[in-house]
Amino acid sequence: MSHGRVVLIGAVHECLAAFDAILASPECEFAGVVTLTPEAGAKVSGTVDIASRASEHQIPVVLVEDVNAPQSVAAIRALAPDLVAVVGWTRLIHDELLELPTHGCIGFHASLLPHNRGRAPVNWAIIRGERETGNTMMLLNSGVDTGGVVDQRSTPIDPEDTCATVYERVAALGASMLTDNLGPLLRGEVVPRRQDESRANLLPKRVPLMGVTDWRRSAQEIHDWIRAQTDPYPGAFTHLEGERLTLWRSTPPGSSDSPAAPGTVVAVDRTGLTVATGSGTILITEVGTSVHPHLHAHEWAARAGLSVGARLDQPSDAWVAWSLGHGPRPEETR
């Protein structure tokens, strides 16, 4: 039995699982999907074509560049939502839209709030060596991930996880929470729990140029750096003789010593490219260039004529600090 009309606002990969959960729910009528125009979506990492999926099921679609613009709000109002689910959306929802649905707007954040509020929470969690993350379902307010908690579920971050594998599990957690809570939300039975502000932290925004690799960090930290920014994101990167090299994959490092200065290639074989770090060595297994976006590291090394002893670029201290969310962006270019 349907208890109300639900509109989904989403653009990046997590919204697909939410779409399926709403579509399958007997608790609601799927009233519409709001997503980015193709032009706006091209500027956001990880966007998916949810509009086509909605159209396949005859669900109305509203394409927006700015969801808070008057014409966007008017189009959503016309869908007459009782509840709006915001999933896989990177921009804040303003008060006019928050106050539009009868039962408000619910949102999801890929962390165990109030820990890791802000942008790219899974990516930052992996970069920082955290071993657990999760998904929080909340009633949205005008703050940044400060709304009352409706539900919350956790997932481990395993040594070989990437941002993609963790986000896949996070999306599944979100879908299960949506399934379990749609009925109570539409019936007005949910009492959100206030977040503990004493445990809150706010993550800085990440942009592609922040993927520059500091070879002075430990092998484990660099492995985390690479897997946190791999597909579907732009990737960690370094430079060799002025040419940019994207670092897509590495293997969890062992306990080897660093036999050379950080950034020095110490071995090239069929397993990949072994590079010295500030503590230990790391095996890079997949890389990319402007000509060949994805190559096995051994194949790239053969094409580039790379030999043992080559040095990968070490960025400046200012650039490293900015890449870790500390300080302003340097004026120099990468």
TrEMBL record:
Xref: CDD domains: Arna_FMT_C
Coiled coil: none
Residue ranges of every copy of the Formyl transferase N-terminal domain listed in the record: 68-179
Keywords linked to the UniProt accession: Transferase
GO terms for cellular component: cytosol
Iron among keywords: no
Pfam family, one: Formyl_trans_C
Keyword Transferase: yes
The Formyl transferase C-terminal domain, residue ranges: 214-303
Matching InterPro entries: Formyl_trans_C, Formyl_transf_N, Formyl_transf_N_sf, Formyl_transferase-like_C_sf
Protein name: Methionyl-tRNA formyltransferase
Organism: Nocardioides daphniae
Gene it is expressed from: fmt
